[in-house]
Write a structure and sequence with these properties.
This protein has 406 residues and is an alpha/beta fold. The chain has 18 helices and 13 strands. This is ABC transporter substrate-binding protein. Residues 1-22 form the signal peptide. Keywords: Signal. Residues 22-34 have a biased composition (Low complexity).
Length: 406
């Protein structure tokens, strides 16, 4: 509701400004930004060049499949340029391009962070409606938790990967022989071992985000879906914990580097951030993980999102790409080396369908206990867009503050 209201206010303001000056010939992207509508798609007369922006590390899971689509559809795709940015930076960049009438990014690969931030500003087209003639009833092919994650997008994106995520703690067993078993024990450990625990800024970190949202379940807050009025215990806990955190990195990679170097002994993690860095040799294989008692998984997903203002010809190609990305062939690629473990959003895509290198990595670096943890603990969806933005803003203001470092 708030998203629609913000978009309506934006449109009204733009129309009022136009009436006060000389008439201006509006470009298609400007018109679409104001009306919120999208022109009907049109098959391109010649192959198009696509620009794909990744703000979630998603290309690690999907780039090979996107390149295969490119190679198999030379009549539609001339080339694909991949760019990388951060979730907090991208919405402002898209907003500026739309206001200038020159949208230069055709497809965004994002987690719930930039999805929520962009939706709150009205930046994304309602792709589930616009692409329905091509995608059909794709929701029925998704795993049940992935279906809920798709609903969370409120039409702004198409899910491409899903995993139960976290929050987990990852620790060095040589330095932490008896890891904390509860949230209170984790706080007590941090107090007794100042600056030895670390997690990243939630607005740009999957593990940080699941920790932020997962605490409300671990601590028994009154309403885990309401960070404004229902997280009294969570905000108090984070403020106290913050006394023993030296600083908060802006991303998860820096956290894992500190764990590897021995600077930190316990970090916040997820299934993927546990498996993948160890498979890549970035974190020692002997690191261990644990789930705190009473925890709920806070699921995570990554989406294919189309900014408003993309041409009808490019959108025609993007919808065909999305259709391919939801095939079992493309989904099997998302096992990767455990980065988003398991990875596939679509049902009935077992590890045996994945490339041999994926099977080898997950067999060697995966953890047998994850299967039962996923089966035996509730899997919750994250906050909706407005609540997530509010939680990020409050964390930045009250918890992270000047302690966030790039």
């Amino acid at each position: 509701m708030r998203t629609k209201l913000l978009l309506a206010i934006s449109c009204a303001a733009a129309l009022l400004a136009a009436s006060c000056g000389a008439p201006e010939q509006k470009q298609p992207a400007q018109q679409q930004q104001q009306t919120g509508s999208a022109e009907p798609v049109k098959r391109p007369d010649q192959p198009v060049k696509l620009t794909v922006a990744d703000v979630a590390g998603n290309l690690q899971l999907t780039q090979k499949a996107i390149e295969k689509f490119r190679d198999d559809h030379k009549d539609l795709v001339a080339s694909v340029e991949f760019t990388r940015s951060t979730a907090p930076e991208l919405p402002g960049k898209i907003d500026a391009q739309q206001k200038a009438g020159r949208v230069e990014i055709d497809l965004v690969l994002t987690g719930t962070d930039a999805l929520a931030a962009g939706a709150s500003k009205g930046l994304w087209e309602k792709v589930t409606d616009n692409a329905k003639p091509v995608l059909g009833d794709f929701e029925s092919t998704l795993q049940e938790p992935a279906q809920r994650m798709q609903q969370l997008a409120e039409g702004n994106g198409i899910i491409v990967v899903y995993y139960p995520s976290g929050p987990l703690i990852e620790y060095n067993p040589a330095k932490v022989p008896n890891p904390p078993k509860t949230a209170q024990e984790l706080l007590d450990w941090a107090k007794a071992n100042p600056n030895k625990l670390m997690y990243a800024r939630p607005a740009n970190s999957g593990p940080g985000r699941t920790f932020l949202m997962g605490l409300s379940y671990l601590l028994g807050d009154s309403n885990p879906k309401d960070p404004k009025a229902g997280w009294e215990k969570t905000w108090k806990y984070l403020a106290e914990l913050g006394q023993y955190v030296e600083y908060y990195p802006s991303g998860t990679s820096a956290v894992m580097k500190e764990l590897s170097q021995g600077t930190r002994d316990i970090v916040v993690s997820t299934t993927g951030w546990d498996i993948n860095p160890r498979a890549l040799g970035q974190v020692p294989k002997e690191m261990k993980t644990a789930a705190l008692q009473g925890f709920h998984w806070v699921a995570d997903a990554q989406y294919m999102v189309v900014p408003k203002g993309v041409s009808p010809e490019k959108r025609y190609v993007l919808y065909e790409l999305m259709k391919y990305m939801l095939t079992k062939e493309a989904q099997a690629q998302t096992y990767d080396q455990g980065y988003f473990y398991p990875g596939p959003a679509v049902k009935d895509v077992p590890l045996s369908m994945a490339p041999a290198e994926s099977q080898k990595a997950i067999t060697e670096f995966g953890r047998p206990e994850y299967e039962s943890l996923i089966k035996d603990n509730p899997i919750e969806t994250p906050l909706d867009a407005n609540a997530m933005v509010a939680a990020f803003e409050r964390w930045d203001r009250e918890i992270g503050g000047s302690k966030v470092k790039k």
